[in-house]
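Dear support,

I submitted the protein below through the web form. The confirmation email said the job was done, but the results page showed an empty box. After a refresh the structure appeared. I'm attaching both so you can tell me whether what I see now is the final result or a partial one.
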Amino acid sequence: MKKTIFLIASALFIFLSVLSQTKDVIIRVHPEQGNQPISKHIYGHFAEHLGSCIYGGLWVGENSSIPNTKGYRTDVLEALKKLQIPNLRWPGGCFADEYHWMDGIGPKENRPKMVNNNWGGTVEDNSFGTHEFLNLCELLDCEPYISGNVGSGTVEEMAKWVEYMTSEGDSPMANLRRKNGRDKAWKVKYFGVGNESWGCGGDMLPEYYADLFRRYGVYCRNYDGNKLFKIASGASDYDYNWTEVLMKKAGNKMNGLSLHYYTVKGWNGSKGSATDFSSDDYYWTVGKCLEIEEVIQKHMAIMDKYDKEKKVGLMVDEWGTWWDVEPGTNPGFLYQQNTLRDAFVAALSLNVFNKYGDRIQMANIAQIVNVLQSVILTKGDKMVLTPTYYIFDMYKVHQDATYLPMDILSDTKEIRGRNIPLVNASASQKSGVTHITLANIDLDAERNVSVDFSNLNITSVSGEILTANTINDYNTFEKPNAVKPQPFDGAKIINGKLNIKLPAKSIVVLAIK
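What the results page shows now:
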């Protein structure tokens, strides 16, 4: 009898424990309110001459033993094509304001070398220059985003670069381009007039840079049907005065204003390990990541004062995690691993960006290969896709779709002094298909999520899930599939609503018809 009572009590305890680990979340999506596009350029990328991002990551040269397509790594090229990357920013970053473009054209054996003072003091041989970058963009079918040198360059140098790339005329720079093997001009839309001009790009005051932007911008001309979208060097995260001054003094001269925001503990001392971290570290990271929404809102409010019609785009052209480099690697190369925690930062950031398509016209994760929160890692002839890569692959369904507003009723957790809803989501619609991306931030508890799409008639649902055994899991060259999307069958249609069993520490994308 005692044994029977003990077994019943044990079963009841287990049942109640499981029950306590499941939370209810209600989401109401409003398709009838959807009228705002999500620019595909929010899903942009960034490649700087830093560490092995360019050399060994994107470019190995045509004589390399590593399989390549005209010098570009074939494996990386094919992986990036699958992501449908919409734009690629180059050559920096801090490198941009020390880069002199004429050093990177013409026969490679004649190109002068330079020391990369910002990143490790390595020797840059300029074998990857303007032609190599713009040809890569053509292979990827993506828009090039050029960062021009204001910090150490001249107005004349920048003006001639624009002419070299985009002029079809019988002009000195167009003829020099032809001499170097490219007859037809490239189409270059996005052009950054300087980078981080408050810091590594010149240590300027906003008033001074505003005048420089106006001056340099005059000579960045439109040639033969190519229309430049001129982007001013904007603020770092909480510097709202920079945005105020730039919008006041030069807002009517620019097409876009950049913003940089990193999920980082600080700029002095250790930034923490990319792989060895606690649950508290993870939740701190989530809070810091989601803080970007408040930062964006404050910058947008300033922009609205001077640009009520929202003609100037906010370009979040550097964002992502920044950890300590991997042990044994060059500190100046910023090579870090990429765990499921980083995937959450990518998913949550993109969910935020999707909401503000009326102002945010571009975002670029830092960086594309082998640097910071990269989507791809390479080592010799090996390549591995990171958890962040899979987020961009899963989330590409939002590109150029219509954003659907939603209300979320979720339990919360206090993180960095704020109550953070533990389920984060975004929804969009394109070509008759509705997609919803869901993240269960909680490391321990499953969520029972009910999604009401108002009057949308749902007939089918399919999905993918990204999760892992622990939040610290990551892919290596030896074990490349430790964190990889799997088919998801935890969503059911019940009485016209979606009911989803959303596991702990998981990110799910659902296609609804």
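Response: this is the final, complete result; the empty box was a page-load delay. The longest helix spans residues 2-20.
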